[in-house]
Amino acid sequence: MTTTHGSAKWQGGIKDGKGAISTKSGALSDYPYGFASRFEGKPGSNPEELIGAAHAACFTMALSLILGEAKLTAEHMETKADVTLEKVADGFAITAVHLTLSAKIPGADNATFQELAGKAKAGCPVSKLLNTKITLDASLQG
């Protein structure tokens, strides 16, 4: 069992306000976020980007574990998580996450790779946390 934390500060209104996010590890320390970085493409972070990074990391680690159980070891894996935030009737919601994985795994055939990647998608803790549609495109490099 492990418990860790992230934190956020905010001051001001929704559009003119400014926030800062931090993580226990110090990987992020008072890193800026706000309306402009979330909705207008301005510099800074946003919750969806952080969820995407967390989901990509969690999924990739889960796949590494599942590969090990199948006596396979990845030479390289890279995952991108596209997180979609949309306006819905009662506000905003994350409506989808699309994982794109590129991997080089010596000794793995594509059918086994797809099966194991699907297990990782369903089983990683962040996937279990998210109440949204999660899709996956996984490609095995030769």
Layout of secondary structure:
Elements: E1 6-11, E2 18-23, E3 31-33, H1 35-39, H2 47-69, E4 76-88, E5 91-104, H3 110-123, H4 125-129, E6 133-140
Parallel strand pairs: 5-6
Antiparallel strand pairs: 1-2, 2-3, 4-5
Structure report:
- The protein is α+β, with helices and mostly antiparallel strands and 142 residues long.
- The chain has two domains: 35 residues, no CATH class; 94 residues, 2-Layer Sandwich (GMP Synthetase, Chain A, domain 3).
- 33% of the residues lie in helices and 35% in strands.
- The strands form two sheets. A three-stranded antiparallel sheet has the order 1-2-3. Strands 4-5-6 form a three-stranded mixed sheet, with helices on one face.
- Helix 2 crosses helix 3.
- 21% of the residues are buried.
Describe this structure in a few short sentences.
With 142 residues, the protein is an alpha+beta fold.
Name the descriptors:
142 residues, KH_dom-like_a/b, oxidoreductase, elongated, 35% strand, 2 domains, GMP Synthetase, Chain A, domain 3, alpha+beta, OsmC family protein, peroxidase activity, Peroxiredoxin_OsmC, three-stranded mixed beta sheet
